[in-house]
Design brief:
The radius of gyration is 18 Å and the shape is globular. The two termini are 27 Å apart. The protein has a four-stranded parallel sheet, sandwiched between helices. By secondary structure, it is an alpha/beta fold. It has nine helices and 14 strands. The mean pLDDT is 96. Helix 5 crosses helix 7. InterPro entries: NAD(P)-bd_dom_sf (IPR036291), RmlD-like-bd (IPR029903). It comes from Streptomyces hygroscopicus. This is dTDP-4-dehydrorhamnose reductase.
């Protein structure tokens, strides 16, 4: 996600700075800065040095509370102090799936440590920076580089164990659509909560089949299973309703069948 944002910003001619935790990226058109979200001094130093008009936070530390929950709040505090706008990317993991369909008015009810960290970050970000944007999204699919796409290739090749759940449903979004939508939100005066999921609900297995067919893999080799029968914690059916946000955007958030079906 971060790499695609940097790419689009550079193409659009925006003066851009990007941060990294372990090593700088390869895009030469941007200035790279080391940043540790766990360190308030690091956050304040980088924000003061760059003095950005807008900050887009796409970081994720999984269930690491210091990175995923506390880090964005530190960043929001620094952004508010410097007068920078903030776009904070969150996740559909903040929802339990109890009501299946979730629009921007729905309150978080996470059932995993990662979801709890994301929900805490949302609350903290909007508390210290009331004009920030919290943009919730779903499974992000790229050009073969996402964790979901790599998993499908490994499962089809037999180099990975596991299954693709048929009862685990989300609204996957293409990374290019998501980045473009975030750029739109960053360029305007939006604030508050926005949903940026694709316009189609798919199970993990349905998504895997589409990826396999796009990449000319044998989709019959993809093992199936039920998340409900597994020991893995997490929501089953979470469908982000992104229609309200979509009406404010030029970028269309396509569904999986559209962005994964090869052009004729």
């Amino acid at each position: 996600m971060g790499a695609e944002l940097v790419r689009q910003a550079a193409v659009a001619g925006h003066t851009t700075a990007a941060t990294y935790a372990t090593g700088p990226g390869r895009t030469r058109e941007v200035a790279w800065h080391a940043l540790d979200l766990r360190d308030p001094g690091s956050v304040e130093t980088v924000v003061a040095e760059v003095n950005p008009r807008v900050i887009v936070n796409v970081s994720s530390g999984g269930a690491d509370w210091a990175v995923t929950a506390e880090g964005p709040v530190r960043l929001a505090m620094a952004a508010a102090k410097s007068g920078s706008r903030l776009i904070h990317v969150s996740s559909d993991a903040v929802f339990s799936g109890a009501r299946v369909h979730y629009d921007e008015s729905c309150l978080p009810d996470p059932v995993t440590p990662y979801g709890a960290a994301k929900a805490a970050a949302e609350t903290g970000v909007l508390l210290v920076h009331p004009n920030a944007v919290v943009a919730r999204t779903s499974l992000i699919i790229g050009h073969g580089k996402s964790v979901h796409e790599r998993a499908v290739h490994e499962l089809a090749a037999g180099t990975r164990t596991g299954v693709l759940f048929t009862d685990d449903i989300r609204c996957p979004v293409h990374v290019a659509d998501l980045a473009a939508a975030l750029m739109e939100l960053a360029s305007g005066d939006a604030s508050g909560i926005h949903h940026l999921g694709g316009n189609e609900a798919l199970s993990r297995h349905e998504l895997g089949v589409l990826i396999a067919r796009r990449d000319r893999l044998d989709d019959s080799r993809l093992p199936t299973g039920l998340r409900a029968d597994s020991a893995l914690p997490g929501a089953l059916d979470v469908r982000l309703d992104s229609r309200a946000t979509q009406r404010t955007l030029r970028t269309r958030l396509r569904g999986g069948h559209e962005f994964l079906t090869p052009a004729a």
